[in-house]
Amino acid sequence: MASLKALKMRIGSVKSTQKITKAMKMVAAAKLRRAQANAEAGRPYATRLAAVVASLASRVTIGPQSPKLIAGTGKDETHLIVLATGDRGLAGAFNSNIVRAARRKAAQLTDEGKRVVFYIVGRKGRPVIQRFFPDAIIAQHDTSAMKAPGYTDALAIAEDVSDRFFAGQFDVAHLAYANFRSTLLQEPTVDQIIPVVPSAAPANDKSAAAATEYEPDEDTILAALLPRNVAIQIYRALLENQAGFYGSQMTAMDNATRNAGDMIKKLAIIYNRQRQAAITTELVEIISGAEAL
């Protein structure tokens, strides 16, 4: 049984922890508003651009002159997974869920006889990937100094990934990130970004069959849009990740604050019981001594 002094010190320690978790919750909630607004603002453009590029890709006949980002390398042997996670913890299962989704995709590709390599964005994904795939990490982009995701950061990652694709280091690239749905739900997602997956228009879609005239031609448009699409999709992933991180951190810190409050109540009950027992014991001793006199 802990002494009264030890219990009092433990209660004080838990109260200090509760103050920290409550402050972190409030900071995460404040940052979440802006991060969520940025993610929601960038989502329509990224979604529409991906749809336009996929639609153009479905109308183009692949040939020797076709952009490599749509034609591919002609092989399907090496797959790159761009794993985008956060740089900090204390956010529940946010980072581990993204890593788990990437590992599932890697296991699926490995079972199909493919070679899998990783491009790490953020610090939290590297330790797990290094443990399960020790020789599969080919590069890592440090985002620890990045306070808020910027398009220049996404462009730098996209250019590095594209250069490695043109150099023949991989044949297909996938992007793993957390799609922000709400404060309580961040959906781990793995999308193929290189080469572009052509859209499959429904058979009864009259708009798909309508005559469309492009100026300039489709190949020229794709040559300009494809590199931008890779950067935009990575930029969207960074924005979604930031919103998801703060949402998950706010939820985790709220739960931690509540748990600390419950622990304080339990410790206070134990402390009061022991204090009452000590007072009762002292009274019994005083009364016994008085009777003995």
Can you offer a commentary on this structure?
This protein has 293 residues and is of the alpha/beta class. Helix content is 61%, strand content 14%. It is built from seven helices and five strands. The protein has helices spanning 4-59, 68-71, 94-111, 126-132, 151-166, 206-209, 218-292, and strands spanning 78-84, 115-121, 137-141, 172-182, 185-194. The model has no long low-confidence stretch (mean pLDDT 87).
List keywords for this structure.
single chain, 293 residues, 14% strand
List the SSEs and their pairings.
Elements: H1 4-59, H2 68-71, E1 78-84, H3 94-111, E2 115-121, H4 126-132, E3 137-141, H5 151-166, E4 172-182, E5 185-194, H6 206-209, H7 218-292
Parallel strand pairs: 1-2, 1-4, 2-3
Antiparallel strand pairs: 4-5
Helix pairs in contact: 1-7, 5-7
